[in-house]
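Cross-check.
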Amino acid sequence: MIQQTSGNLLIIGGAEDKQKECKILKYFIQEAGGRDSRICVITAASENAGQAAQPYEGLFKGFGCSDLETLNIYFRKDADSQENVDKLIRSSGIFFTGGDQLRITAMLGGTELGKALQHAYERKVIIAGTSAGASVMSETMIIGGEGDTPGEDLIRMAPGLGLLKGVIIDQHFAQRGRIGRLLTAVALNPYVLGIGIDEDTSVHVRADGKLRVIGRGTALIVDASFARISNVDELFAGRPLALAPVQLHVLSEGHDFDILERTSNLQ
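Predicted model, tokenized:
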């Protein structure tokens, strides 16, 4: 699969700073137009929508955004509401809160709001997501699996929103020891890139396929397209993963990666 980018995504690994410098959230507002931004916060990932939106509403207004709408999507019918669709269409920045990524796809998939989101992406409106809102950006997303040893029991995947193709995202990455499940994900899909993003860290993926890291942690990029050894056909018999060689890029703030060329500015 060839990686495809055409929009403007800010993918956040979760637990972004909301009390001190707030670098990532301020960056989002700036990219959306600063004081002229029109922000749409989508809480579809959370069953407690109002609670999920509250800190972002206060922060974004404090950063100078006076035009802010919150879309609380409790049921699929809410995602077909013309009022909600119109709010999203006029926005210059869209922000997905955290929660359960399956709720996002279940609530938005195939709806008018889902279609409007795709059109916003194609218009290069900046779309940000944190935690579950990060995982859902890709065509295939990780929905579960924990542990240390890479293998079949470590991973569960499902279709995502499909904004970013040929990439799998994992979040809360270093903090929850998720390198094993990201390796398993790319072993099962060796044509995709795996991107693991630490907490209070984000990657800004631009339309030209360039990715830049922003925040205090790192983004780890896994490329298994070079692998000559793989036993993924044996994973379901309980065998641990064998995959080699695998190319890793560990990038901190200010470093770039070209998703299309699969190269970093460290090379």
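The radius of gyration is 18 Å. The mean pLDDT is 94. Passed to J.P. for a second look.
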